[in-house]
Design a protein that fits this description.
single chain; globular
């Protein structure tokens, strides 16, 4: 997860450049930074769990692997070469939302199978809304739709931060 944060922060200068910025893309970069910190926080609560290979693979390979893939999509290896982030984002949007859908499905599977979170727990609502947002983004090419999705995801991530802040070490 440190690689995800490093990748995103390393490209932030280029993502935020005034002559290149596409605010929807920037919102997703910031959201992914926060989601990664939330995933790291959630992993902390697994420290006293009896680990199996399944829980290991889920917590340390699948989730972080998808997060890293998302980071690589949002911030390519040479972000300074991107002259305008809007066409770049629309060039990768299907891969991005497809990977985001994979992350949401992995979160749902992990919550039900590994942590055994009840289906009607508040965090499951976040997951189900994430499913809707991912699928909608996957099929839409419209700027207005992506704007609404980015803002909604920002609200969803903010709500997740509130939920996480209510849990303590």
């Amino acid at each position: 997860m440190a690689l995800v944060i490093t990748r995103l922060l390393g490209g932030l200068r280029w993502v935020m450049a005034a002559d290149r910025v596409y605010w929807v893309h920037l919102v997703y970069v910031v959201n992914l930074l926060i989601i990664t910190s939330l995933a790291w926080w959630a992993l902390w609560f697994q420290r006293e769990t009896q680990w199996t290979y399944l829980s290991f693979a889920y917590n340390l390979l699948i989730g972080p692997g998808i997060l890293y893939f998302l980071a690589v999509l949002l911030v390519p290896e040479r972000p300074r070469r991107i002259r305008d982030w809007r066409p770049y984002f629309f060039g990768i949007h299907k891969l991005f939302y497809g990977a985001l859908l994979g992350l949401v499905l992995a979160a749902l599977a992990g919550s039900l199978l590994i942590t055994q979170t009840p289906l009607f727990h508040p965090t499951q609502g976040v997951i189900f809304l994430g499913l809707f947002l991912s699928i909608t983004g996957l099929v839409s090419k419209r700027h207005n739709v992506h704007s609404i999705l980015a803002l909604t995801m920002g609200i969803l991530v903010g709500y997740s931060v509130v939920l996480a802040s209510q849990s303590s070490l």
